[in-house]
Amino acid sequence: xxxxxxxxxxxxxxxxxxxxxxxxxxxxxxxxxxxxxxxxxxxxxxxxxxxxxxxxxxxxxxxxxxxxxxxxxxxxxxxxxxxxxxxxxxxxxxxxxxxxxxxxxxxxxxxxxxxxxxxxxxxxxxxxxxx
Length: 131
Fold this sequence. Notes:
There is one protein chain. By secondary structure, this protein is an alpha/beta fold. The protein has a single domain (9-121), classed as NAD(P)-binding Rossmann-like Domain (Rossmann fold, 3-Layer(aba) Sandwich). 37% of the residues lie in helices and 12% in strands. The protein has helices at residues 24-37, 54-64, 91-97, 105-121; strands at residues 9-12, 18-20, 51-53, 70-73, 85-86. It has a three-stranded mixed β-sheet with strand order 3-2-5. The radius of gyration is 18 Å and the shape is globular. The N and C termini lie close together (12 Å).
């Protein structure tokens, strides 16, 4: 949208669904701790434990976007059997490893948006779609 490659409309599904968002950098750090401190055969969840509505992600995108955009619910993106709340419990993993997420949700969204900005503007980059 910011590059002018598409209309300034964000098509979404259910904005009220609550999900547990964990930055992949925190997850990878968790994997490393699991190798060192985890018990073989034990099952662990790596999760923030914090539920956030998908609308919160959209709010951050609105705040950080360089162009205004509208949000439209696309019926094709609505799931017939949507789970209204999905939040992980990482208490066993935290107890075993001392892990906790370090990267704030807002920062995760900003970093992801910046990554896409760079990718869209760098057509020579593998997978780049720049103008």
